Amino acid sequence: MKLKKSLSAEQRRALLATPAGWLACGFGSGLTPVAQGTSGSMAALIPWLWLRQLSLPIYVAVLIVGYVVGVWACNVAGRAIGVADHRSVVWDEFIGQWIALLPLLIPAFLPASGFAWWMVGTGFALFRLFDVWKPWPISWLDRHMKDGTGVMVDDVVAGIFAAIVLALGLLALH
Prior knowledge:
By secondary structure, this protein is mainly alpha-helical. Helix content is about 65%, strand content about 0%.
């Protein structure tokens, strides 16, 4: 569970002093005073508008690289602020949100009418639901995995759950 406490001025300076910290805090989106995870997930939609133009293999490669770099960045950020999984660290929301929206890049999942923006809203809401609710095994991963891997992996699984539900919902529209 992420801490409820806000960053001190010193922690904020330490976080923003490195490129890893900027990435980990979602380019500043995790520094909002409330709902940092939601802010990070919303901010993730901006680069997703570009990412959705990529071919599926390249999109998946971006996810993999984003995950690996995220583990490193979240480790660096956690050490800099002295809290492994502070709520201001939201790069995990970026990767989880992009995974949740993966079905929107696969034509077989889209209804005959094609892509619609409500699908993005649905993917966003599903990811936030699974990220906050943390059903098993997400809750277990959140409690037992530490450091950058622990920060990232529960959101990856929440994104996978959201993607599955989104894909099934879209298929039901066929």
